[in-house]
Protein backbone atom coordinates (compact mmCIF):
# COMPACT_ATOMS: atom_id res chain seq x y z
CA UNK A 1 0.00 0.00 0.00
CA UNK A 2 1.18 3.53 -0.77
CA UNK A 3 2.43 4.77 2.60
CA UNK A 4 0.63 7.88 3.84
CA UNK A 5 1.66 10.29 6.53
CA UNK A 6 -0.42 10.55 9.71
CA UNK A 7 0.77 12.61 12.68
CA UNK A 8 -2.12 12.00 15.09
CA UNK A 9 -4.04 15.19 14.26
CA UNK A 10 -7.78 15.23 15.05
CA UNK A 11 -10.25 17.76 13.68
CA UNK A 12 -10.23 21.23 15.26
CA UNK A 13 -7.37 20.55 17.66
CA UNK A 14 -6.57 24.24 17.43
CA UNK A 15 -9.91 25.07 19.13
CA UNK A 16 -11.22 24.40 22.62
CA UNK A 17 -13.77 21.62 22.91
CA UNK A 18 -17.11 22.74 24.33
CA UNK A 19 -15.83 26.31 24.48
CA UNK A 20 -15.27 27.26 20.84
CA UNK A 21 -17.55 24.53 19.55
CA UNK A 22 -19.72 21.72 20.90
CA UNK A 23 -17.98 18.35 20.89
CA UNK A 24 -20.02 15.20 20.20
CA UNK A 25 -19.12 11.57 20.90
CA UNK A 26 -18.04 10.26 17.50
CA UNK A 27 -18.18 6.85 15.81
CA UNK A 28 -14.49 7.01 14.92
CA UNK A 29 -13.57 3.35 15.45
CA UNK A 30 -11.99 2.01 12.26
CA UNK A 31 -13.38 -1.45 13.08
CA UNK A 32 -16.89 -0.44 14.13
CA UNK A 33 -18.18 -3.66 12.57
CA UNK A 34 -16.52 -7.08 12.15
CA UNK A 35 -13.76 -6.95 9.49
CA UNK A 36 -14.20 -8.64 6.13
CA UNK A 37 -11.84 -11.58 5.65
CA UNK A 38 -10.49 -12.67 2.26
CA UNK A 39 -9.17 -16.14 1.65
CA UNK A 40 -6.02 -14.85 -0.04
CA UNK A 41 -2.75 -16.76 0.04
CA UNK A 42 0.57 -15.15 0.87
CA UNK A 43 1.41 -14.50 -2.78
CA UNK A 44 -1.96 -12.88 -3.45
CA UNK A 45 -1.59 -10.63 -0.38
CA UNK A 46 1.82 -9.53 -1.61
CA UNK A 47 0.38 -8.89 -5.08
CA UNK A 48 -2.35 -6.68 -3.60
CA UNK A 49 0.26 -4.75 -1.63
CA UNK A 50 2.29 -4.21 -4.80
CA UNK A 51 -0.77 -3.05 -6.77
CA UNK A 52 -1.67 -0.50 -4.10
CA UNK A 53 1.87 0.77 -3.72
CA UNK A 54 2.83 0.96 -7.41
CA UNK A 55 -0.34 2.39 -8.98
CA UNK A 56 -2.36 5.57 -8.59
CA UNK A 57 -5.50 4.70 -6.62
CA UNK A 58 -8.48 7.03 -7.08
CA UNK A 59 -11.89 7.02 -5.43
CA UNK A 60 -14.46 9.05 -7.35
CA UNK A 61 -16.49 9.46 -4.15
CA UNK A 62 -15.57 8.90 -0.51
CA UNK A 63 -15.62 11.00 2.65
CA UNK A 64 -13.57 11.61 5.76
CA UNK A 65 -16.79 12.60 7.55
CA UNK A 66 -17.50 10.97 10.95
CA UNK A 67 -21.04 10.30 12.19
CA UNK A 68 -21.85 10.82 15.89
CA UNK A 69 -22.29 7.69 18.00
CA UNK A 70 -25.81 8.63 19.10
CA UNK A 71 -28.62 8.81 16.55
CA UNK A 72 -30.20 11.78 18.33
CA UNK A 73 -26.99 13.78 17.89
CA UNK A 74 -26.90 13.52 14.08
CA UNK A 75 -29.11 16.50 13.21
CA UNK A 76 -27.67 18.94 15.80
CA UNK A 77 -24.17 17.83 14.83
CA UNK A 78 -24.88 18.59 11.16
CA UNK A 79 -26.40 21.94 12.17
CA UNK A 80 -22.94 22.83 13.44
CA UNK A 81 -20.09 23.68 11.10
CA UNK A 82 -17.64 21.69 13.23
CA UNK A 83 -18.16 18.20 11.80
CA UNK A 84 -15.11 15.98 12.20
CA UNK A 85 -12.86 14.50 9.51
CA UNK A 86 -11.17 11.12 10.06
CA UNK A 87 -7.61 11.92 9.02
CA UNK A 88 -6.24 8.64 10.36
CA UNK A 89 -8.84 6.55 8.54
CA UNK A 90 -8.23 8.32 5.24
CA UNK A 91 -4.46 7.91 5.64
CA UNK A 92 -4.97 4.15 6.06
CA UNK A 93 -7.37 3.81 3.12
CA UNK A 94 -4.81 2.99 0.43
CA UNK A 95 -6.31 5.77 -1.72
CA UNK A 96 -4.15 8.49 -3.30
CA UNK A 97 -6.89 10.79 -4.65
CA UNK A 98 -10.43 11.22 -3.30
CA UNK A 99 -13.25 13.20 -4.91
CA UNK A 100 -14.44 14.74 -1.62
CA UNK A 101 -17.63 16.82 -1.33
CA UNK A 102 -17.25 17.33 2.45
CA UNK A 103 -20.86 16.11 2.85
CA UNK A 104 -22.18 19.41 1.49
CA UNK A 105 -25.66 17.91 1.10
CA UNK A 106 -26.19 17.70 4.86
CA UNK A 107 -24.93 21.15 5.85
CA UNK A 108 -28.07 22.53 7.53
CA UNK A 109 -26.89 25.42 9.69
CA UNK A 110 -29.88 27.63 8.78
CA UNK A 111 -32.13 25.70 6.37
CA UNK A 112 -34.15 22.51 6.87
CA UNK A 113 -33.14 20.77 3.66
CA UNK A 114 -29.57 21.82 2.89
CA UNK A 115 -27.83 22.43 -0.45
CA UNK A 116 -28.03 26.20 0.08
CA UNK A 117 -25.37 28.69 -1.08
CA UNK A 118 -24.40 30.23 2.27
CA UNK A 119 -24.31 26.91 4.07
CA UNK A 120 -22.08 25.23 1.48
CA UNK A 121 -19.67 28.18 1.33
CA UNK A 122 -19.43 28.28 5.13
CA UNK A 123 -18.88 24.50 5.22
CA UNK A 124 -16.05 24.74 2.68
CA UNK A 125 -14.37 27.54 4.60
CA UNK A 126 -14.55 25.67 7.91
CA UNK A 127 -13.25 22.41 6.44
CA UNK A 128 -10.44 24.20 4.62
CA UNK A 129 -9.46 25.91 7.89
CA UNK A 130 -9.25 22.52 9.62
CA UNK A 131 -7.23 21.05 6.74
CA UNK A 132 -4.78 23.98 6.89
CA UNK A 133 -3.86 22.96 10.45
CA UNK A 134 -2.64 19.46 9.58
CA UNK A 135 -0.29 17.69 7.15
CA UNK A 136 -2.09 14.43 6.37
CA UNK A 137 -4.34 15.46 3.47
CA UNK A 138 -4.35 18.46 1.17
CA UNK A 139 -6.62 20.28 -1.26
CA UNK A 140 -5.73 19.59 -4.91
CA UNK A 141 -6.84 21.88 -7.74
CA UNK A 142 -4.65 20.86 -10.68
CA UNK A 143 -3.36 17.65 -12.20
CA UNK A 144 0.08 18.42 -10.80
CA UNK A 145 -1.41 18.81 -7.33
CA UNK A 146 -3.12 15.44 -7.62
CA UNK A 147 -0.02 13.61 -8.79
CA UNK A 148 2.02 14.96 -5.86
CA UNK A 149 0.05 12.80 -3.42
CA UNK A 150 2.32 9.79 -3.68
CA UNK A 151 5.53 11.80 -3.56
CA UNK A 152 4.35 13.72 -0.50
CA UNK A 153 2.89 10.61 1.21
CA UNK A 154 -0.41 12.44 1.59
CA UNK A 155 -3.97 11.95 0.32
CA UNK A 156 -5.09 14.50 -2.28
CA UNK A 157 -8.67 15.75 -1.91
CA UNK A 158 -10.31 16.97 -5.11
CA UNK A 159 -13.01 19.41 -3.89
CA UNK A 160 -16.40 18.42 -5.27
CA UNK A 161 -20.07 19.24 -4.73
CA UNK A 162 -22.96 16.79 -4.65
CA UNK A 163 -25.31 19.01 -6.66
CA UNK A 164 -25.60 22.41 -8.33
CA UNK A 165 -28.71 23.46 -6.37
CA UNK A 166 -26.70 26.24 -4.75
CA UNK A 167 -26.33 28.05 -8.09
CA UNK A 168 -30.05 28.95 -8.08
CA UNK A 169 -30.14 30.99 -11.33
CA UNK A 170 -26.66 32.58 -11.08
CA UNK A 171 -24.30 31.09 -13.66
CA UNK A 172 -21.37 33.22 -12.40
CA UNK A 173 -21.49 31.25 -9.16
CA UNK A 174 -19.80 28.44 -11.10
CA UNK A 175 -16.77 30.72 -11.43
CA UNK A 176 -16.92 31.60 -7.73
CA UNK A 177 -16.95 27.91 -6.82
CA UNK A 178 -14.05 27.25 -9.16
CA UNK A 179 -12.16 30.08 -7.47
CA UNK A 180 -12.84 28.38 -4.14
CA UNK A 181 -11.27 25.18 -5.42
CA UNK A 182 -14.30 23.18 -6.58
CA UNK A 183 -13.26 20.96 -9.48
CA UNK A 184 -16.23 18.57 -9.78
CA UNK A 185 -19.95 19.27 -9.40
CA UNK A 186 -23.11 17.18 -9.64
CA UNK A 187 -25.89 18.66 -11.77
CA UNK A 188 -28.85 17.67 -9.56
CA UNK A 189 -29.49 15.79 -6.34
CA UNK A 190 -32.59 13.64 -5.87
CA UNK A 191 -35.13 16.37 -6.62
CA UNK A 192 -35.27 18.80 -9.54
CA UNK A 193 -33.45 22.13 -9.51
CA UNK A 194 -32.96 24.98 -11.99
CA UNK A 195 -30.64 22.84 -14.12
CA UNK A 196 -32.66 19.67 -14.58
CA UNK A 197 -34.50 16.74 -13.01
CA UNK A 198 -33.21 14.69 -10.12
CA UNK A 199 -33.58 10.95 -10.00
CA UNK A 200 -36.82 10.81 -7.95
CA UNK A 201 -38.85 13.01 -10.32
CA UNK A 202 -41.66 11.23 -12.15
CA UNK A 203 -41.60 13.77 -14.97
CA UNK A 204 -38.11 14.28 -16.36
CA UNK A 205 -38.00 17.47 -18.38
CA UNK A 206 -34.32 17.08 -19.15
CA UNK A 207 -31.60 19.71 -19.01
CA UNK A 208 -32.96 23.27 -18.82
CA UNK A 209 -31.69 26.26 -20.79
CA UNK A 210 -29.97 27.45 -17.61
CA UNK A 211 -28.51 23.97 -17.17
CA UNK A 212 -27.01 24.19 -20.67
CA UNK A 213 -25.36 27.49 -19.74
CA UNK A 214 -23.91 25.90 -16.61
CA UNK A 215 -22.52 22.95 -18.58
CA UNK A 216 -20.89 25.34 -21.05
CA UNK A 217 -19.36 27.36 -18.19
CA UNK A 218 -18.04 24.25 -16.48
CA UNK A 219 -16.45 23.14 -19.75
CA UNK A 220 -14.80 26.54 -20.19
CA UNK A 221 -13.47 26.61 -16.64
CA UNK A 222 -12.26 23.03 -16.55
CA UNK A 223 -14.69 21.65 -13.95
CA UNK A 224 -15.69 17.98 -14.00
CA UNK A 225 -19.40 17.17 -14.47
CA UNK A 226 -21.14 14.48 -12.38
CA UNK A 227 -24.58 13.03 -13.23
CA UNK A 228 -24.84 10.44 -10.42
CA UNK A 229 -28.14 11.84 -9.14
CA UNK A 230 -29.71 13.01 -12.41
CA UNK A 231 -32.80 11.44 -13.94
CA UNK A 232 -32.32 9.59 -17.23
CA UNK A 233 -33.39 12.30 -19.68
CA UNK A 234 -31.36 14.93 -17.85
CA UNK A 235 -28.35 12.58 -17.77
CA UNK A 236 -28.49 12.00 -21.52
CA UNK A 237 -28.93 15.72 -22.20
CA UNK A 238 -25.90 16.58 -20.06
CA UNK A 239 -23.76 14.01 -21.84
CA UNK A 240 -24.81 15.38 -25.23
CA UNK A 241 -24.37 19.03 -24.21
CA UNK A 242 -20.93 18.69 -22.65
CA UNK A 243 -17.82 19.02 -24.79
CA UNK A 244 -15.91 17.06 -22.14
CA UNK A 245 -16.43 13.50 -20.90
CA UNK A 246 -19.00 13.26 -18.10
CA UNK A 247 -18.61 11.24 -14.90
CA UNK A 248 -21.02 9.07 -12.97
CA UNK A 249 -18.96 9.17 -9.80
CA UNK A 250 -21.02 6.79 -7.64
CA UNK A 251 -23.82 4.57 -8.93
CA UNK A 252 -24.68 1.07 -10.18
CA UNK A 253 -26.69 -0.80 -12.80
CA UNK A 254 -30.50 -0.56 -12.82
CA UNK A 255 -30.76 -3.79 -14.78
CA UNK A 256 -29.50 -5.59 -11.65
CA UNK A 257 -31.41 -3.50 -9.10
CA UNK A 258 -34.38 -1.56 -10.43
CA UNK A 259 -34.35 1.67 -8.43
CA UNK A 260 -33.96 5.32 -9.50
CA UNK A 261 -30.58 5.45 -7.75
CA UNK A 262 -29.14 3.01 -10.27
CA UNK A 263 -28.40 3.93 -13.90
CA UNK A 264 -30.08 2.53 -17.00
CA UNK A 265 -28.04 0.73 -19.64
CA UNK A 266 -28.74 3.61 -22.02
CA UNK A 267 -27.21 6.18 -19.64
CA UNK A 268 -24.23 3.98 -18.80
CA UNK A 269 -23.49 3.39 -22.49
CA UNK A 270 -23.94 7.06 -23.38
CA UNK A 271 -21.54 8.08 -20.62
CA UNK A 272 -18.91 5.64 -21.84
CA UNK A 273 -19.37 6.55 -25.51
CA UNK A 274 -18.40 10.15 -24.70
CA UNK A 275 -15.25 8.99 -22.87
CA UNK A 276 -16.74 9.12 -19.37
CA UNK A 277 -16.18 6.82 -16.40
CA UNK A 278 -18.65 5.15 -14.02
CA UNK A 279 -17.67 4.79 -10.36
CA UNK A 280 -19.28 1.77 -8.70
CA UNK A 281 -21.02 2.74 -5.45
CA UNK A 282 -21.04 0.96 -2.09
CA UNK A 283 -23.38 3.19 -0.05
CA UNK A 284 -25.84 1.10 1.98
CA UNK A 285 -29.00 -0.12 0.22
CA UNK A 286 -27.89 1.06 -3.24
CA UNK A 287 -25.92 -1.56 -5.21
CA UNK A 288 -27.93 -4.55 -4.05
CA UNK A 289 -28.73 -7.50 -6.31
CA UNK A 290 -31.24 -10.34 -6.34
CA UNK A 291 -28.49 -12.90 -5.79
CA UNK A 292 -27.34 -11.38 -2.49
CA UNK A 293 -29.59 -11.32 0.60
CA UNK A 294 -27.66 -8.41 2.14
CA UNK A 295 -25.59 -5.56 0.83
CA UNK A 296 -22.01 -6.78 0.62
CA UNK A 297 -18.82 -6.54 -1.38
CA UNK A 298 -20.06 -9.38 -3.59
CA UNK A 299 -23.22 -7.49 -4.60
CA UNK A 300 -21.17 -4.35 -5.28
CA UNK A 301 -18.81 -6.27 -7.51
CA UNK A 302 -21.74 -7.90 -9.32
CA UNK A 303 -22.65 -4.37 -10.43
CA UNK A 304 -19.02 -3.79 -11.32
CA UNK A 305 -18.87 -6.84 -13.57
CA UNK A 306 -22.18 -6.05 -15.23
CA UNK A 307 -21.07 -2.51 -16.09
CA UNK A 308 -17.69 -3.74 -17.34
CA UNK A 309 -19.44 -6.22 -19.64
CA UNK A 310 -21.70 -3.40 -20.87
CA UNK A 311 -19.17 -0.61 -21.51
CA UNK A 312 -15.73 -2.28 -21.24
CA UNK A 313 -13.01 -2.10 -18.60
CA UNK A 314 -11.93 1.32 -19.95
CA UNK A 315 -14.92 3.17 -18.51
CA UNK A 316 -15.33 1.83 -14.98
CA UNK A 317 -13.79 2.88 -11.68
CA UNK A 318 -14.42 2.98 -7.94
CA UNK A 319 -16.73 5.45 -6.18
CA UNK A 320 -17.62 3.69 -2.95
CA UNK A 321 -19.27 6.73 -1.28
CA UNK A 322 -18.39 5.62 2.24
CA UNK A 323 -17.58 7.50 5.46
CA UNK A 324 -16.99 6.68 9.13
CA UNK A 325 -19.75 5.57 11.48
CA UNK A 326 -23.32 4.45 10.91
CA UNK A 327 -24.13 5.32 7.30
CA UNK A 328 -27.65 3.88 7.55
CA UNK A 329 -28.44 6.03 10.59
CA UNK A 330 -27.42 9.13 8.67
CA UNK A 331 -29.63 8.08 5.74
CA UNK A 332 -32.56 7.64 8.11
CA UNK A 333 -31.97 11.00 9.80
CA UNK A 334 -31.96 12.84 6.45
CA UNK A 335 -34.47 10.68 4.59
CA UNK A 336 -37.35 13.15 4.42
CA UNK A 337 -35.12 16.16 3.84
CA UNK A 338 -33.23 14.60 0.92
CA UNK A 339 -35.70 12.00 -0.43
CA UNK A 340 -33.24 9.17 0.17
CA UNK A 341 -35.73 6.31 0.52
CA UNK A 342 -37.54 7.53 -2.62
CA UNK A 343 -34.29 7.05 -4.54
CA UNK A 344 -34.29 3.41 -3.35
CA UNK A 345 -37.91 2.72 -4.42
CA UNK A 346 -38.84 -0.03 -6.82
CA UNK A 347 -37.41 -3.08 -5.09
CA UNK A 348 -38.48 -4.85 -1.90
CA UNK A 349 -35.54 -5.49 0.41
CA UNK A 350 -34.55 -5.72 4.05
CA UNK A 351 -32.40 -2.74 4.98
CA UNK A 352 -28.81 -3.75 5.69
CA UNK A 353 -27.24 -2.39 8.89
CA UNK A 354 -23.97 -1.85 7.04
CA UNK A 355 -22.22 -2.98 3.87
CA UNK A 356 -20.18 -6.09 4.62
CA UNK A 357 -16.71 -5.52 3.19
CA UNK A 358 -17.14 -1.82 2.35
CA UNK A 359 -18.15 -0.21 5.65
CA UNK A 360 -15.80 2.78 5.46
CA UNK A 361 -13.04 4.26 3.28
CA UNK A 362 -10.33 2.39 5.18
CA UNK A 363 -11.53 -0.93 3.78
CA UNK A 364 -13.79 -0.29 0.77
CA UNK A 365 -11.35 0.46 -2.06
CA UNK A 366 -8.69 -1.94 -0.78
CA UNK A 367 -11.26 -4.71 -0.62
CA UNK A 368 -12.42 -3.99 -4.17
CA UNK A 369 -8.83 -4.46 -5.31
CA UNK A 370 -8.52 -7.65 -3.27
CA UNK A 371 -11.73 -8.98 -4.81
CA UNK A 372 -10.33 -8.38 -8.30
CA UNK A 373 -7.11 -10.18 -7.41
CA UNK A 374 -9.05 -13.09 -5.92
CA UNK A 375 -11.11 -13.33 -9.11
CA UNK A 376 -8.01 -13.40 -11.33
CA UNK A 377 -8.33 -10.03 -13.05
CA UNK A 378 -5.17 -8.97 -14.86
CA UNK A 379 -2.83 -6.29 -13.56
CA UNK A 380 -3.66 -4.18 -16.61
CA UNK A 381 -7.38 -4.29 -15.87
CA UNK A 382 -6.97 -3.63 -12.15
CA UNK A 383 -4.79 -0.59 -12.74
CA UNK A 384 -7.37 0.79 -15.16
CA UNK A 385 -10.30 0.62 -12.78
CA UNK A 386 -8.30 1.54 -9.69
CA UNK A 387 -7.28 4.89 -11.15
CA UNK A 388 -6.04 4.94 -14.71
CA UNK A 389 -9.47 5.38 -16.32
CA UNK A 390 -10.52 8.38 -14.28
CA UNK A 391 -7.01 9.82 -14.51
CA UNK A 392 -7.58 10.00 -18.28
CA UNK A 393 -10.64 12.21 -17.73
CA UNK A 394 -8.87 14.32 -15.10
CA UNK A 395 -6.01 15.01 -17.50
CA UNK A 396 -8.49 15.98 -20.20
CA UNK A 397 -10.50 18.41 -18.06
CA UNK A 398 -8.21 19.84 -15.38
CA UNK A 399 -5.31 22.23 -15.81
CA UNK A 400 -1.85 20.59 -15.76
Write the layout of secondary structure elements.
Layout: H1 42-54, E1 58-59, H2 74-78, H3 87-91, E2 97-100, H4 117-132, E3 137-139, H5 143-152, E4 155-161, H6 173-179, E5 184-186, H7 209-221, E6 224-226, H8 232-241, E7 247-251, H9 265-273, E8 277-280, H10 297-311, E9 316-318, H11 327-338, H12 340-343, H13 364-374, H14 379-397
Parallel strand pairs: 1-2, 2-4, 3-4, 4-5, 5-6, 7-8, 8-9
State the CATH class.
Alpha Beta
Q: Profile the largest sheet.
A: 6 strands, parallel
Q: Would you tell me which CATH topology applies? A: TIM Barrel
CATH architecture: Alpha-Beta Barrel
Strand content: 5-15%
Mean pLDDT rating: 96
CATH superfamily: Metal-dependent hydrolases
Structural class: alpha/beta
The tally of strands reads 9
Number of domains: 1
Separation of termini? Answer: 26 Å
What would the keywords be for this entry?
globular; 9 strands; 400 residues; alpha/beta; six-stranded parallel beta sheet; three-stranded parallel beta sheet; TIM Barrel
Amino acid sequence: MSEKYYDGYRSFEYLRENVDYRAYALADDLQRVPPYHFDLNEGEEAYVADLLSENLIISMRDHGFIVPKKYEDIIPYCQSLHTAFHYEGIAKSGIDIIFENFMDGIAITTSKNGLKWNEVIHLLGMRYADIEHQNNVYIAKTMTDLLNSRKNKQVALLPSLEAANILENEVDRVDVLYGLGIRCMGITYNEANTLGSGLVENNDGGLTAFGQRVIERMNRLGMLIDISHCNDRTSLDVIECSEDPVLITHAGARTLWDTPRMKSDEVLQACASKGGVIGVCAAPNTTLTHTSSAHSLDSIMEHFEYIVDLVSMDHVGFGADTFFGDHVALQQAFDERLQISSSHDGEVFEESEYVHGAENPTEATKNMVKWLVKHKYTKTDITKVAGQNVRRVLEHVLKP
